[in-house]
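User: I'm putting together notes for a lab meeting next week and I want to include a structural view of one of the chains we've been expressing. I don't have a solved structure, so I'd like a prediction I can at least talk through. The sequence is below, exactly as it appears in our construct file.
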Amino acid sequence: MLHLSRAKTLIKITFIVFLISCNLFSQSHNETLRLNELGYFETRGLNILVFSNEYDVMFQDAKMAGVEIIHHGVRTVTNGDVRLDPTPEQWDSISKLVERKIQKDNRIEVNRFYSSYDFYYKIIAEGIKNGIRLAVYIEKPLPKELEGRAGFNLEFLPSAYFEKSYLMDGKTGIFPLYPTGPMEFDKITGNIQPLPIAKGKKLVLAPEDPERRIVIETNSSELMLYDGRNKAQNGWFVVRTLIPPKKRGVVIEWFITANTIPNWIRQPMLAYSQVGYHPQQKKICFIELDPNDTPREYARLLKVDDNG
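Assistant: Thanks for the context. Below is the predicted structure for the 308-residue chain, given as structure tokens.
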């Protein structure tokens, strides 16, 4: 039998090695995120887009617009914008673009408006260490009919966070695999709306996963975390802060940072025709590599048959 003191020593050594290993894979670059020549914030393993894409004209909410985050090669965050519902559905109101400006001081400003309410607002994003500072600015207080409705939303891809943990002001929760959480009748809209599953000032998503860990902190009104799947089958997890009534200027301020793995390299991507090929046409496949990757001399094409 293993002596008790020796067993404790082995456990302690194993735990220390585990902590060191975790630390090696969770360190960020700790550098200011910079705008690239394409007009979005970029560093190795992290891209943050600020209205590089506009809402789909037909479907509106196609999960490909607003503030978006591509995290270690996966677009896990999208639809960052001022919305009028906690978990908007496909046909709910969206704002219109007025102007998008890229400033020389590593900043993007986007002016938008809701024509039905004569409501104009500005979203400001500037690079900080490992992320961005994001602010919502309004020159006039919210229209009365939007009080308690308008807020900044950011949506997170459910499959990227299924059964991972989150910390809201240090309190632990688990992202559910299946839609869950309380609902209520909203007297303002007359609809059934999800209630937040957590509230606070600092939210850490997937603290245990170095590829998916994102931190959101606010100095303004509280962060609210929702499960949008309660209301719509295409719903995502939503983080939201309401715009306070009777205020102007910077009414919402978030600091969004994302962990990046040092020396991370994206897996090769195979690109081919999505519409198919003519029987007599050459079938060509392009292999796209990470800019930091080293090209191989050869590529192999494997045929899958009945035997594998």
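A couple of points you could mention at the meeting. Residues 4-26 have pLDDT under 50 and may be disordered. Helices lie at 4-26, 158-161.

User: Perfect, that's what I needed.
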